[in-house]
Amino acid sequence: MNEQSINFIMDLLFNPNVTNNEFNKESFDIVYNGLKEEIESFEEDPRAYSQIRCLEELDNSLEFSFRQCGYIEDLNNITPKSLFEYYKSVLKSDLIDIFIIGNIDENKIKEIISSKFNINTKKKESDSHYINFNDFRKRAKVVKEQKDFNQSKLVIAAKVENLSDFEKKYVLRLYSHILGGAPDSKLFQTVREKHSLCYYITCTSRMVSSLVTISSGINKENYKKCVTLIKKEMKNMENGLISEEDITKSKIAYISSFKELQDNPSAIIRNALSHEYIQTDLIEESIKNIELVTKDMITNVAKKVHLDTIYLLEGSSKDEKN
Question: 141-315 adopts what CATH topology?
C-alpha cells in the first residue's frame, strides 16, 4: 500500500482540479467562503483577538503580529487563476523537504519518491527564523479597548533580550512554566488562588519570537491590582525567589511532555521539522539538556525579560462572567 498511497498523494499534487490554468471555480469558492467566514468571525473570539491585538500593538510590522487566518482585503484579491499561479511558484521555487515515519524500507521509499516527485529542488541555506530585539521600552505601553464581551481579557507581552541558543530552547521554557505555566505556578497561585482576581492566567514563552506573553481573564475593576501582582511576581523571579522544588516540578513536566512525543508519530514528525528549520534539538537530546538548567540560569533569563505592552480588552458588562 505504500506505493499506492504515495501515488495518490502525487496525483493530488501534480494533477489538481484545474481548467484553463485556473483552479476549479466551485472548489475554489468552497475554500474561499470558508476562509472568509473564519476571518470575519475572528473578532468574536475574545481570547484569540486580545492576544493578537497585544502583539499588533507591540509591533505590527513583525511576523508574529499577523493574523493566522489572514485579512479580508488580501482574500478579496485572490482569484482561481492567481491562486494557481502561486501554487505553481511554490512547486517551482520553494524549499521542499519530505518527512516520512514508519516501519519502512528506507531505500525503497526514497526510490519511489524520487521517481514520482517530479520537481528539481536544490537545498539552500535559509535566513534565520529567529527574531531578536535591540530596543526596549522604559515604561510599558498600555492599550485599552472596549468590546461587547462579558469577560475582560488582559494580555501582557514582554520582549526577551539577547538569549543564547541554550537559553532560548530550555531556560526560557522553565522560566515561563514556573511563572505561569501550571496550576502550581507563581501567577496562578498568587493572582487566582490567593487573591481571586482572575478566571484563568497563563504564561507562554515564544522561543522564535523572543517573547513572553501572559494572558488572563479578569473583571475590568481588578485590572490595576492584577498588573501590580504580575509585575511583582516577575520581579521576584529576577531576584531569585525560585525554589528548587519549582525547578524540579517544571523539569518533570517538560520531560514528561517530551517522552509523550515519542509515542505520537505526528509529534515526532513535527519535532523533526522543527529540528530542520529552526534547529531545535531532537527528543532524546532535549530530555538531557532540560536537566542541565539551574536556578542561576533561570534568574539570569528573568533579568532579560522586559515588559513592553499591556493590553486590556474591556468587557462591556459590569457583572462579568466566565
Answer: Cytochrome Bc1 Complex; Chain A, domain 1 (3.30.830)
- The CATH architecture of the domain made up of 2-116 is 2-Layer Sandwich (3.30)
pLDDT in tens, the chain (322 residues): 888 999 999 999 999 999 999 999 999 999 999 999 999 999 899 999 999 999 999 999 998 999 999 999 999 999 999 999 999 998 888 888 889 998 889 999 989 988 888 777 656 666 778 899 989 999 999 999 998 888 899 999 999 999 999 999 999 999 999 999 999 999 999 999 999 999 999 999 999 999 999 999 999 999 999 999 999 999 999 999 999 999 999 999 999 998 998 889 999 999 999 998 888 999 999 999 999 999 999 999 999 999 999 999 998 755 444 4
For residues 200-231, one letter each, b for 16 or more C-beta atoms within 10 angstroms of the residue's C-beta and e for the rest, the string is ebbbbbbbbbbbbbbbbbbbbebbeebbebbe
Continuous segment of H or E residues that includes residue 289: helix 283-290
